[in-house]
Design goal:
The protein is α/β, with parallel strands linked by helices and about 300 residues long. It has ten helices and twelve strands. The strands form three sheets. It has an eight-stranded mixed β-sheet, with helices on both faces. A two-stranded antiparallel sheet has the order 5-10. Strands 11-12 form a two-stranded antiparallel sheet.
């Protein structure tokens, strides 16, 4: 597995924000203690065009392999449409990763911080996808989706989750109350109480929030879920080698702008017969309070903890 960390100098601060160093250090620690069957190689892909240099990336060059797209800077690239530049940078870094001929390519932006369970969960997910590969082809796995959009909504899947919670909760409560009534020889209308209890459980789940209930799955790597991925987002994606080659070719024919950002272009570049999955809960945390395109985040409360 080739791990590619795409980085660019962020403006809006008098000194480096430290995102890249924190991400690289965390990856180094995870790789050092990992026991999965992945052979891993990490490199930094510096796409900063100027003005100035990406000091943080060049300091890390002493310890990690570094590829720079603009070693001498580029005035033309620095004034390019930021959405198109982001796409071209992504294509460049993915092409650099493809040179290593690895079976899997993990593309990570420099403000996506991996969690401790990253590699065990990836190994389990890939093994599962290999088992069903004869029936379904998959292109890539998205490893992060904003928590604020993971809550309950009127989507069919999430409505079914609440319905299942109601049914299972009501049935369990009914069995429990029936046993209690039989033991103490009490007569009560268990079904009405059980149905009310099921509704109460659904209300509790809505109050807590789906994004917080998903955290329970972190107890065991096998509890993580593979779900159909939305078009957003692209901070960290695992590609199969053959899919990465096809996506690079398609991205070169697309021009990105504010109406067609990179994540949407990536999703649309996937082959029609290939599936794109998202792993829940997230395997990365987003630490980029300052974005390379949009500046300061509109949701600063997400970075308070």
């Amino acid at each position: 597995m080739v791990i590619t960390i795409i980085t660019v100098r962020r403006f809006g601060a008098f000194k480096p924000l430290g995102y890249l160093t924190r991400v690289v250090a965390t990856f180094h620690s995870l790789i050092d203690k990992d026991t999965t069957n992945f052979n891993k190689f990490l490199f930094i892909c510096n796409t900063h065009a100027g003005p100035g240099h990406h000091e943080e990336a060049y300091k890390l060059k002493k310890y990690f392999y570094l590829v720079s797209k603009f070693p001498n800077g580029s005035a033309e690239a620095s004034i390019m449409n930021p959405f198109e530049k982001e796409k071209q940078d992504y294509v460049f870094c993915m092409e650099q990763a493809l040179k290593f001929s690895s079976e899997y390519i993990l593309m990570v932006e420099d403000d996506a911080l991996p969690r401790d369970e990253l590699f065990p969960v990836l190994e389990n997910s890939i093994n599962y996808l290999k088992d069903i590969n004869k029936k379904e082809q998959w292109s890539h796995l998205k490893l992060y989706f904003p928590e604020r959009w993971q809550g309950y909504s009127f989507e069919l899947k999430q409505i079914c989750e609440l319905l299942a919670l109601f049914v299972v909760g009501s049935m369990c409560l009914h069995v429990l109350m029936s046993n209690v009534s039989t033991r103490y020889k009490r007569v009560s209308n268990n079904w009405i109480t059980s149905l009310l209890g099921g509704i109460y459980l659904v209300l509790i789940a809505l109050t807590i929030g789906r994004q917080h209930l998903l955290e329970i799955k972190r107890i065991w790597p096998y509890w993580y879920s593979l779900v159909s991925a939305p078009e957003c987002c692209s901070p960290c994606i695992l590609y199969q080698n053959k899919s990465a080659i096809q996506i690079v070719q398609r991205l070169k024919t697309v021009k990105c702008d504010n109406h067609l950002p990179l994540d949407i272009a990536l999703h649309r570049s996937t082959q029609a017969h290939s599936n794109v999955y998202q792993i829940e809960p997230n395997l990365f945390s987003h630490i980029g309070l300052v974005s390379t395109i949009k500046g300061l985040s509109q949701y600063p409360e997400e970075f308070m903890l």
